[in-house]
Amino acid sequence: MAYLVKQSHRAAAVTEPVPVDESLPRTCVIGAGSSGITAAKHLYLAGIPFDCFEKGSDIGGTWVYDNSNGQSACYDTLEINTSCPRMAYSDFPMPEDYPDYARHDQVHAYFEQYVDHFGFRRTITFDTTVEDVSRGADGRWDVRISGPGGTETRTYDAVLVANGHHWDPRWPDPAYPGAFDGEQIHSHDYRSADQFEGRDVVVVGAGNSAMDIAVESSFRARTTTWSVRRTEWVLRKFFLGKPSDQGLLPPGWVPWWVTATRLRIGALTAGSMTKYGLPAPSHKPGQSHPVQSEKIRERLAAGAVTAKPAIERLEGDRVVFVDGTSAPADLIVWATGYRVRFPFLGPDLVSVEDNVLPLWKRAVHPDLPGLFFIGLLQPIGAVMPLAEAQSAWIAEMLGGGYLPPSDAVIRRQMTEDHERNVRRFYDSPRHTMEVDFDPYLWDLQRERAQGRERAAAARAPLAAVPLAPAPTGAARVRRTVAGLLLRAVRWQAVGEVPQRGVLVGAPHTSNWDWVLTLLLAWRYGITIRLLVKKELFVGPLGWLLRRTGAVELDRKNPAATIKELLAEAAGDDPWVIGIAAEGTRSRGEYWKSGFYRIAQQTGLPITLAFLDVPSRTVGWGPTFHPTGDVSADMDVLRDFYADKTGFNPEGFTPPRLREEG
Known about the structure:
This protein is α/β, with parallel strands linked by helices. It has 15 helices and 32 strands. The model is unreliable at 461-471, 579-592 and 651-661 (pLDDT under 50).
């Protein structure tokens, strides 16, 4: 189901102190904004010893007007762009009497209530700045802090960075040519429309803040000009009288094109901005971070705001635009975004260029164990629920209830996710951390479930590992779906579930092997890593393959893919490698030998599987260890598949394995 917090989801208040387990990793949380407080809450409830340091004397970060930490960008008319049920933490709904889109003061009050409801306010140390975080010789983290009591260094097993990414203004670089006689400020320094009284104001930027500021300026300034270098699709906050982000909500497992379609519908129903003097966007809806405004069109139509293209140069008391026109100006507001920066992390430790910092699940740096980032993402939706999900995940990791996959798997997934997001959005510093809200939550929930199974298997003796682990969460859904699909087409699944093995499908099923693997994996609830040739990872088929645990096999460098899978296969939990589409089908009179080599290298047995059309049966066959006697091993395969017809029985050649020198 899509994320939507209801009043019934409110958790019981925590009224008694939670005991601390000093045997768990000692942890430091940096910041008490919306990400820091949910991190603190989950560590607190898990009994993990931790300190949370906040530079100012307030919680809430950006949502605190004139925050004492000096870094808030909150202005007097700021309100959320995600409706309350989609922004609230999962177990603590916003008050029922809040409007659909809460004001900044209401959001701040909500954060205060959250901290008190779960009883962890005393764990936050205020008016304390984290000056430096560095790795000690033992791999732990040395954190230097300064506060009312002076400066000291404390050592931690883990550090959760939650300092936010909307506090370090990004100015035009390089600066526009020419000289300007008036005042220039960044939107970060804007507080109220009093700053615009009787002035000629030029607002630069196309994001939510730029539109908010241009609208407010139009009521107080002498003139307001809105300069847009790249036009965005401006969505409305309401659709048919309801918050637009609550309509047509699909579950999190749907492919990206569904979200893109929702955004396109929103853009089309909102209407074009070209009639107000802006050029048509050069990208499609869904290829940039969504922006919303209910008032900008109204103020443009009234002539209170004048839209202009990009700036060409500054000229004394005027701003000249690329179309040759100009506007009077004695104040320029640069709503040009923010830089991602961590002043307490040295550049030799974490280097960020143009806001690019690839992370696994946008939280884990694979080269820096024990260092985590909370809320360092830009979702198509609100940050708070995602930061909460990250915090719960990391608390589970620190508490020992979750075990991550191998380093090779982490790096591969991190690279794939980063490259996929780069393809989805146009090149811009604002899109380096972009994620899709519901799919991100769904994916993280799935990873947590898999990690719990890995942790349970690691704790249990080998003999105690079940052949088919009891499904939980998403696994239950997949098992049900597979069962329904098989019954719907009047097929049956048979055979003993393998504990571990290299899956080999009937060679004459050709590219249907991945369907076989999908049904078996879902029906029996085991982990299968399916090798599929890279060319198939396009469109809906590619989306479905990824959702079944498929891995892109680069045929130009198959060894690298195999090596990663071998690392992932380490351990004792039920686990199967599937060879699909490339590796199990006939080629002439020989089977390709990839499955055989993997079985020999890993020591995993070969597990046979089949699709049989006449009997409408899909299932497991025998499992055996390769003996090294190629002829004898192939006799097992040949005998098993002799009476199986699959989907392509015509011209089927009994399998043989090419012996390799």
